[in-house]
Specification:
The protein is about 25% helix and about 25% strand. It has helices at about 20-30, 125-140, 170-175, 190-195, 220-235, 240-245, 255-260, and strands spanning about 5, 35, 40-50, 50-60, 60-70, 155, 160-165, 180-185, 200-205, 210-220, 265. The model has no long low-confidence stretch (mean pLDDT about 95). The protein binds flavin-adenine dinucleotide (FAD). Flavin-adenine dinucleotide binds near residues 117 and 118.
Length: about 280
């Protein structure tokens, strides 16, 4: 069996996400036999990936060496915009090298548009596809903008992690009060028939009304469950419409009834407001 080590400079995996998500993913990797090294500062890498490679990192003031056969660097993506004459065409870049666009995806050169990752927007295929729709409509005389659109995403681990709308961290940083609905997957009957009870579902609902502000699933088929909630969010359905729906037993969507029928905790505005 191959040994795998994940090295991350942050103190948590997917550190922008809520603690229950990062802890869930960490435990998942651990259970798969994957070692996770956090707070790592890489000092040097030597020899050759594909053969034998050695990574030396600083671990709390001491050096630690990890040896292996292959190294996969996944430290972010950079736009490929240098030296291709964009300046000659009058297409300006942002300080990070992305193509500068407005909310209609127009660049600084009249009649030149940009889509997808190169604009520096959320880097997902579905966002690139939506960018296409924005440009198509604008070229045809419309006024379609990228502002305010939902950015759902799914991490295709097993089980998956998917989120649409606000996480708890985001709500707290923005000073948004919410009701928190959260259930473990053990409470979803379909999860038992699938023998996939790992994870949880959680939803943030506004306190002044009943709209769903955000939904997170760390579960089997999380991406599909999230999409169902996303449709409810698009329709601005009060959460009770999902709670009171007659949904087929046993399906994963039926878990949404259990989720929204659970007792919520109320998280008031926090000191982080405005951060
Ligand atoms: C490992 C990985 C997994 C991913 N998984 C997902 C996922 O599950 N779901 C999801 O939504 N997104 C995922 N993404 C992100 C997704 O792939 C990108 O957001 C999406 O492909 C962006 O589309 P794009 O058209 O903007 O760019 P790209 O798909 O990168 O297309 C850009 C094209 O331009 C070409 N090109 C570059 N420079 C030049 C040049 N100078 N001249 C001519 N052509 C050039 C490239 O060769 C490429 O064909 C993943 C990305 C990675 C790296």
């Amino acid at each position: 069996m191959r040994r795998v080590t994940v090295i991350d400079r942050n103190d948590r995996l997917v550190h922008h996400e809520d603690d229950d998500v990062t802890e869930g993913l960490h435990a998942l990797l651990k259970d798969e036999g994957i070692e996770v090294v956090l707070n790592a500062r890489i000092q040097r890498i030597s020899e050759k990936s594909g053969d034998r490679v050695r990574v030396v990192l600083a671990d709390g003031g001491r050096e630690k060496t990890i040896e292996g056969t292959h190294l996969l660097a996944a430290s972010g993506r950079a736009p490929n915009t240098e030296g291709i004459g964009l300046d000659l065409a009058g297409v300006e870049l942002t300080p990070d090298g992305y193509v500068k666009v407005n909310e209609r995806l127009e660049t600084t050169a009249p009649g030149v548009w940009a889509v997808g990752d190169v604009t520096g927007g959320p880097k997902f295929t579905h966002i690139s596809f939506d960018d296409f729709r924005v440009i198509r409509d604008n070229i045809n005389g419309g006024n379609h903008v990228t502002t305010g659109r939902q950015v759902p995403f799914c991490l295709f681990t097993d089980p998956e992690f998917a989120r649409v709308g606000l996480s708890e961290k985001q709500a707290q940083n923005r000073g948004i009060a919410y009701r928190l609905f959260r259930i473990p997957m053990e409470q979803v009957l379909r999860a038992h028939t699938l023998s996939e009870t790992r994870g949880f579902l959680k939803a943030l609902v506004e306190t002044a009304g009943d709209r769903i502000l955000g939904f997170t699933a760390f579960s089997v088929d999380a991406g599909e469950i999230m999409s169902a909630v996303q449709i409810a969010m698009i329709a601005e359905l009060p959460y009770a419409k999902l709670r009171d729906a007659v949904l087929t037993h046993p399906t994963l969507m039926e878990g949404l009834i259990s989720l929204f029928a659970s007792a919520p905790s109320v998280v008031a505005r926090t000191a982080n407001a405005g951060a």
